[in-house]
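lol forgot to send this yesterday, sorry. struct tokens for the thing we talked abt
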């Protein structure tokens, strides 16, 4: 909450308000009624993704729109974490994004704010890393060699070269990395190795190396809308186990 007040009082810092003009105007009116006249910077939900690189003068972010895309909201959330900026929601519609929300008050305004993420603690990150090493290690040493041999025979019969292709991706930290997949460009569309679940099996190499996670890297969380953000707010070792088991049983579907 201190960061929000800093944005209101520091002449060199602003509060980023995300929403339509009428919503932003209402927030400004409420703040003004409380004797608060912070510098504000406004952006519409449609232009949010283009504005994430221009936050140097922003002390806190307040989302006053319920129409922000889930992917944009997740990118904004990560950006706020990286820059250690507070992020607040001033719209009831966004409260469904996560269970772990707390209400903060500024005058008569109520803001929904996400609580501290479980994976912000080093011991939880260690647990998740050990889980990733266990799952990927078992798969790579017991199952993957056979799959690789079959894939090598099938792929190299069509064309010489590596069995793998490397796809450029952006990780959770915002850093790029190369994701391994089977090279299937020359295989028929109905080939077994063209199936997304099979083609992505080499990504367990990324997991073992630490550039990806089993959940939600290879296996996605589909328990709810805006699942990635919900996952980060509600992570537990049991949740990773549950998502993996549901994926293996083909039951990893949206539940709410």
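and heres what i got for the seq, position by position
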């Amino acid at each position: 909450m201190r960061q929000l007040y800093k944005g209101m009082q520091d002449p060199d810092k602003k509060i980023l308000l995300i929403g339509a003009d009428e919503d932003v105007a209402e927030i400004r009116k409420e703040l003004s009624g409380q004797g608060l006249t912070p510098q504000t910077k406004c952006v519409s939900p449609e232009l949010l993704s283009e504005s994430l690189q221009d936050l140097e003068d922003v002390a806190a972010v307040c989302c006053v729109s319920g129409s922000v895309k889930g992917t944009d909201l997740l990118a904004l959330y990560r950006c706020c974490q990286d820059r250690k900026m507070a992020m607040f929601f001033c719209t009831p519609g966004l409260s469904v994004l996560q269970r772990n929300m707390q209400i903060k008050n500024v005058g008569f305004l109520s803001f929904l704010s996400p609580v501290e993420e479980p994976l912000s603690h080093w011991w939880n990150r260690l647990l998740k890393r050990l889980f990733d090493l266990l799952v990927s290690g078992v798969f790579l040493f017991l199952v993957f060699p056979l799959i690789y041999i079959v894939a090598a025979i099938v792929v190299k019969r069509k064309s010489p070269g590596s069995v793998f292709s490397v796809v450029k991706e952006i990780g959770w930290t915002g850093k790029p990395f190369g994701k391994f997949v089977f090279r299937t460009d020359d295989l028929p569309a109905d080939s077994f190795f063209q199936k997304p679940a099979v083609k992505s099996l080499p990504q367990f190499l990324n997991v073992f190396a630490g550039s990806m996670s089993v959940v939600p890297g290879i296996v996605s969380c589909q328990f709810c809308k805006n699942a990635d953000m919900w996952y980060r707010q509600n992570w537990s070792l049991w949740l990773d186990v549950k998502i993996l088991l549901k994926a293996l049983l083909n039951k990893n579907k949206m539940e709410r």
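Residues 128 and 237 are 7 Å apart (CA to CA). anyway ping me if u want another try
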